[in-house]
Design brief:
This protein has 258 residues and is α+β, with helices and mostly antiparallel strands. It has one domain. The chain contains six helices and eight strands; from the N terminus they run ααβαββαβββββαα. It has a six-stranded mixed beta sheet with strand order 1-2-3-4-5-6, with helices on both faces. It has a two-stranded antiparallel ribbon with strand order 7-8.
């Protein structure tokens, strides 16, 4: 069954993103490879890092109310005036480092194996303020922008902080940013809303070769169908970030029309 949305499905963001991220990159590679052979190779790269969870990222849960049993159960969670001077012990959590793994695409020239273009599908960690994932990504981004490789960034997430850009950016839910090596610091920004199909975007190649065209909507539809997201996604759950009142009305009409 297809997604109920005309383009990107916002419910995937909080429910199926890890699987979607990997599958979307895989289908993009298949779609690009068929048109780029034999001159180019498209490969999946992987970035692994350890993210240190911090309180200011809202990743540490705080108990609004602590319920303590003083007359039964184990010693933990009880008042121990005989040894602790009346202090009360409650259960908390220690922030733990989390290993993250993110995939991206690399387009190489087949003969020279030169990295021609890098395609990045942003993850929530890349957009989380002060997070290790954002620092790691922005560091790699700076290196790429100083190289001779093109960079294509896909932001299919409504939540989080947008990547820094200079100049007026359209008000939209989703973005594709094409950074051609020979045109920096200028870049092409494709922007669209949740009500629009995903666009077809250019993937720049070596000078003298025409851009490859990547139909993102076609890729999304294949991913959604192959991964069988419809039975697993709870479309009655609250969205994060939430819809505006006009978007909520649109979603209600959309559901009624299906």
């Amino acid at each position: 069954m297809p997604s109920p949305f005309p383009g990107m499905d916002p419910f995937l963001e909080n429910q199926e993103w890890e699987d979607f991220h990997t599958t979307f990159n895989t289908i993009m590679r298949e779609r690009l490879s068929s048109g780029l052979e034999p001159d180019y190779l498209v490969r999946v790269g992987r970035r692994i890092y350890v993210e240190h969870v911090r309180e200011d990222l809202n990743t540490v849960r705080r108990a609004a109310v602590a319920v303590l049993s003083l007359d039964s159960g184990p010693a933990f969670g009880r008042t121990r005036s005989d040894t602790s001077g009346g202090a009360v012990a409650v259960e908390c959590e220690v922030p733990m480092p989390v290993e993250r793994s993110e995939t991206y695409l690399v387009v190489r020239h087949r003969v020279s194996m030169e990295v021609v273009t890098v395609i990045e599908l942003l993850s929530p960690a890349n957009k989380r303020r002060n997070a290790t994932g954002r620092h790691e990504y922005l560091t790699k981004r700076t290196e790429l922008l100083s190289s001779s490789s093109h960079l294509v960034e896909l932001d299919l997430l409504r939540g989080g902080d947008r990547l820094p850009l200079i100049g007026p950016v359209p008000v939209a839910d989703y973005f594709a940013i094409i950074r051609r090596a020979n045109r920096r610091p200028r870049c092409e920004v494709y922007a669209w809303t949740i009500r629009d199909p995903l666009p077809t975007i250019p993937i720049p190649l070596k000078r003298g070769d025409a851009d490859a065209m990547l139909p993102l909507q076609e890729v999304f539809e294949i991913v959604y169908q192959q991964a069988r997201y419809y039975p697993s996604v709870d479309y009655n759950s609250p969205l994060e970030p939430p819809f505006s009142s006009s978007e909520s009305d649109w979603l209600k009409r959309l559901r009624q029309s299906k």
